[in-house]
Write a structure and sequence with these properties.
By secondary structure, the chain is of the alpha+beta class. It contains twelve helices and 38 strands.
Length: 689
């Protein structure tokens, strides 16, 4: 087995008291390597947004590849022949492409690209092999949708709000030409004023537009300071659009409320279609126009609820639940034909595509929807339906997403995007493990990755890696990060602890009011013991890591136990009393994950905070957070760092300049995260054999 490199000299000189990220060590050439190295991350590709042509004969999809020179992800458009699997490039150049959408007759493909210098709408004429720029928009468009007759394109776009009373009343003198003044003040008045990855939100709102498909001036359909639309759906006659919105006065304080609206283009009439308590989204008409399917989720002040598939009789307005008996979160309904739909839901660590009849009969079509996320094995994937053909992103534990189709009851994989990179590599193997929590006997599902060249007679160091959310899930899916840890000789164990999604509402709600707690730690600890019982894990070489909610759980865990040699706490919340009123999610978390405002529930917030247990911590702990993180602000990491320093516990802080919450959103940042954690653990790892 490949032996881990020694990073000790680097780590001591670079992060003994790190407050700024220093230069990473040079990566060795991997030209002849049989193992998955960090540099290989730049060579990975994955598919997303596969769109079946109306006749079911072709698929256009987005092919994403990492760029070592720009440290970003480049997206191109490719065409696939469903029958032969033959692949041909549609747009492969220095520009980026997204949201390919077929016209109803299959003659054109609309898409969004920056090929004109900014993100605009383009239309490609397939037979003629010619492409037209059809928009001149001031902002980036989204949610691109063809009208049934192919004459118009609907989309959403942000529009500046009208100046507020205070903004109008504030009079500043005119700056003389050539004068150098300080940056102007930023006026903040909205409750929802910031978002991770965006910073302070501009004073603008999302509105619905239409545009002639041959080009011309866009027409704004909606008004007011509200956010309209996400999924847009045309009525079959092309006379109106259906979308979701919350246009109540207190919309900012209602994160789980929206209704469906119909906008008729001829008379500009906006009609409310639903008024259910909760969210109505993802509306889509049956081909014959008789039914409108949509997803509904209730607005209870709880951290998790299942989305349900609803069916509205368009003539009578009667609504019924098609998935009443399904204890899973339904998403992305699409019509297979006039009598059945296709939906997706997560089930026991896998993303499933299933058909649903109008009587509610459910039939699983595949559980291989996966692979559209590289760093960690989160559930992911996308699909589309046309002419009874389903195209989807297919991934597994060994590969990121390819494009596959389901046609005539058979599944075929059409691409092999990573065989050039991974086909000759020895990768870690993923295995399932099931056990019961020591807290209450609750069944817990997990997985572990064994290193390449694994020998069950040997003892290996083990890393427990805890997922974020907390109402998300890992599964047997490709993970670049975990494959790197396995390459360096670690058994990597991860589980779906109580609170994880894909196991139904009861299981997800076991964490309600207990985020974090000794209960979810017992789920992890029991899994570690189950792994040791397998016989190849060195109980004296245990390590723990996690990001976001997993970072919180990791910081909480080292306050409960001293069994780990070292910990990597990535983008955590350390003190809920300080975080909930500084992060970007306060409008939701205050009332859905907590019993109310912090000043009235101090004890509850403090009990859930890892800082409350810092007096117990002896585990060497690395902290890592993006400096632009607004979801788990870096001030949280600084609190833990300073507290551990005051206690003289071995600790370092790795700051990722300019990074939001998703610190693996660039290849070099993903590599940075991996290699710093490996280097940190290497300092405390002892020989296992």
């Amino acid at each position: 087995m490949k032996k881990p490199e020694a990073f000790a000299p680097f780590i001591y000189s670079c992060i003994a008291s790190v407050t700024l990220l220093c230069a990473a060590p040079a990566l060795a050439s991997t030209a002849s390597s049989q193992y998955f190295e960090s540099e290989d991350i730049f060579a990975l590709e994955y598919a997303n947004d596969p769109q079946v042509s109306p006749d079911g004969k072709q698929v256009v999809y987005v092919r994403n590849s990492n760029d070592i020179m720009t440290d970003g992800t480049h997206s191109s458009l490719w065409l696939l022949d469903v029958k032969t699997g033959q692949q041909s490039p549609l747009f492969v150049d220095q520009f980026n492409y997204a949201s390919p959408r077929w016209s109803e007759d299959g003659s054109r493909i609309a898409f969004i690209s920056d090929r004109s210098g900014s993100r605009q709408i383009h239309v490609h004429y397939v037979k003629e092999n010619k492409t037209a720029l059809v928009s001149q928009l001031s902002k980036s468009p989204g949610n691109l949708t063809w009208s049934p007759d192919g004459e118009q394109l609907a989309f959403t776009m942000n529009v500046p709000a009208q100046p507020t009373k205070l903004a109008k009343a504030t009079k500043m003198p005119k700056k003389p030409e050539g004068a150098k003044w300080s940056e102007p003040a930023v006026l903040i008045e909205r409750a929802q004023y910031q978002a991770d990855g965006q910073g302070f939100l501009k004073s603008e709102f999302r509105h619905v537009f239409v545009l002639p498909s041959t080009g011309g001036k866009e027409r704004k359909l909606t008004d007011g300071d509200f956010n309209y639309g996400s999924d847009l759906s045309w009525t079959p006659d092309g006379k109106a659009l259906i979308f979701s919105a919350n246009i109540s006065k207190d919309w900012e304080y209602q994160p789980r409320d929206s209704d469906l609206y119909q906008f008729t283009l001829a008379n500009s009439q906006l009609k409310q279609l639903t008024s259910m308590a909760g969210q109505e989204t993802a509306a889509v008409f049956s081909p014959d126009g008789k039914y409108l399917a949509f997803v509904w989720g209730n607005n209870e002040k709880v951290p998790y609820t299942n989305g349900k598939l609803k069916l509205m009789d368009w003539r009578s307005g009667e609504i019924k639940d098609l998935t009443k008996e399904l204890d899973r979160d339904v998403e992305n309904p699409q019509w297979l034909d006039n009598s059945s739909l296709v939906i997706q839901f997560d089930d026991k660590g896998k993303r499933t595509i299933a058909s649903v009849s109008l009587s509610g009969k459910l039939e699983q079509l595949t559980d291989q929807l996966s692979g559209a996320a590289l760093p960690q094995p989160y559930l992911s994937g996308e699909y589309s339906v046309a002419n009874e053909v389903i195209a989807f992103t297919q991934g597994n534990a060994q590969r990121p997403a390819d494009v596959a189709v389901i046609a005539n009851g058979k599944t075929r994989t059409l691409t092999a995007l990573n065989e050039d990179v991974l086909g000759h590599k020895k990768l870690g193997q993923v295995h399932e493990i099931n056990y019961k929590s020591s807290f209450d006997g609750e069944p817990i599902q997990g997985w572990y990755i064994t290193p390449p060249d694994f020998d069950p007679k040997k003892k290996y160091p083990m890393m427990l890696e805890i997922h974020g959310g907390p109402h998300l899930a890992y599964g047997p899916h490709f993970s670049a990060e975990m494959q790197r840890f396995a390459t360096e000789g670690y058994v990597v164990f991860y589980d779906n602890h109580r609170g994880s999604s894909s196991y139904g509402e009861r299981f997800a709600m076991l964490l309600h009011g207990k985020y974090s707690s000794p209960e979810d730690y017992a789920d992890h600890d029991s899994g570690v013991n189950a792994m040791i019982d397998l016989g190849f894990v060195d109980k004296d070489n245990l390590f723990i890591a996690g990001g976001s909610a997993g970072g919180i759980a990791t910081a909480y865990a080292v306050g409960l136990t001293q069994r780990y040699k070292a910990a990597a706490v990535v983008k955590p919340i350390i003190n809920w009393l300080s975080k909930v009123l500084t992060g970007d999610s306060y409008l939701y978390q205050t009332f859905h994950q907590f019993p109310g405002v912090p000043w009235e529930n101090v004890e509850h917030y403090w009990k859930r905070s890892p800082l409350s247990l810092v007096g117990n911590v002896t585990t060497p702990t690395m902290l890592m957070t993006g400096e632009a993180d607004r979801r788990t602000p870096i001030s949280e990491s600084e609190q833990f760092y300073q507290a551990l320093k005051l206690r003289k516990v071995d600790t370092v802080m790795v700051r990722i300049p300019g990074s939001p919450h998703g610190i693996a959103n660039k290849p070099s940042r993903m590599i940075t995260k991996i290699e710093y954690i490996l280097a940190w653990f290497e300092q405390y790892k002892t020989s296992s054999n």
